[in-house]
Design the sequence.
């Protein structure tokens, strides 16, 4: 497995986007809506795919809107994501489509955005409903049912388990709603099967951290049968640890269906993953924003498809 380090090119991209965000809209751009896509880490292939899908959609609809794509350095860089939101508001964008790195921490900044007249659409990771309501933030959610998707992916594993088999979970960022829901979905499937959950640890969506956790799990639990990972980047880290330990009987389940995981599905190193169609997820949010900007009533939350991918 090849692990590509965070590159200077990516750093330059983030920096250039930050400078772009500080510039006011041009007069030429005032005639059509300007939409800002604010994602999590562009070092994660899932968000690279999301970015590409959004850029392709914008390129095919240049007469309808213009798009600014922003991302942060890593999954937990909340300060940078807050800065990006503030930059987009200062620029005067018409809408922000955001995949928040944290389900609560972004809410005050997003409320300030809506107070400034910016439409906010929440994608991928749902904002905390109670906290949003208390803050007076109305941001429609467009995205998958992560709990159902994780349960469906884990069910491919549970068909091969016996009651009492030992399984571990590597979850994402514990304060992220989608991470919480994926963990719960895994737990739903495992509890129904009678499997024993021996450990739940946070990998923060990161390959390297998941690799370290998986290596420790394999040492601590010699009878471990499987590791369920809340995204495919962490599944890649778990697979590397399993290969290094010579424990190829340990099965892995992921979530996202990134391209790097697909050969591992084919050869059995990963048993299953959940495809939430990352190339279209931002597009769904952008289309919802454009419809509202065009005068349509703000829609109720929209649940998008999740499909299980296995050999």
Sequence:
């Amino acid at each position: 497995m090849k692990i590509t380090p965070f590159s200077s090119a990516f750093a330059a991209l983030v920096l250039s986007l930050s400078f772009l965000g500080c510039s006011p809209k041009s007069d030429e751009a005032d005639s059509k809506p300007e939409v800002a896509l604010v994602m999590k880490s562009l070092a994660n292939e899932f968000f690279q795919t999301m970015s590409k899908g959004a850029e392709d959609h914008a390129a095919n609809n240049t007469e309808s809107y213009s798009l600014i794509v922003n991302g942060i350095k890593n999954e937990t860089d909340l300060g940078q994501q807050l800065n990006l939101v503030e930059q987009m508001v200062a620029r005067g964008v018409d809408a922000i489509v955001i995949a928040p790195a944290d389900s609560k921490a972004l809410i005050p900044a997003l409320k300030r955005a809506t107070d400034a007249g910016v439409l906010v659409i929440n994608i991928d990771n749902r904002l905390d409903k109670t906290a949003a309501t208390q803050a007076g933030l109305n941001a429609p959610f467009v995205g998958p049912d992560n709990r159902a998707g994780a349960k469906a992916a884990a069910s491919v594993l549970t068909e091969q388990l016996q009651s009492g088999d030992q399984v571990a979970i590597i979850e994402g960022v514990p304060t992220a709603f989608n991470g919480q829901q994926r963990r719960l979905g895994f737990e739903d499937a495992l509890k129904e099967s009678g499997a024993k959950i021996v450990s739940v640890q946070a990998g923060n969506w990161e390959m390297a951290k998941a690799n370290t956790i998986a290596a420790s799990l394999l040492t601590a639990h010699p009878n471990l049968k499987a590791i369920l990972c809340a995204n495919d980047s962490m599944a890649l880290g778990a697979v590397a640890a399993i290969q290094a330990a010579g424990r190829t009987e340990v099965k892995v389940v992921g979530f996202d269906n990134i391209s790097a995981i697909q050969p591992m599905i084919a050869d059995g190193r990963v048993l299953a993953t959940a495809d939430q169609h990352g190339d279209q997820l931002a597009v769904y949010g952008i289309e919802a924003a454009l419809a509202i900007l065009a005068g349509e009533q703000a829609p109720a939350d929209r649940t998008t498809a999740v499909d299980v991918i296995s050999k």
Observations:
- Residues 79 and 195 are 39 Å apart (CA to CA).
- The domain at 146-275 is CATH 3.40.50.2300 (Rossmann fold).
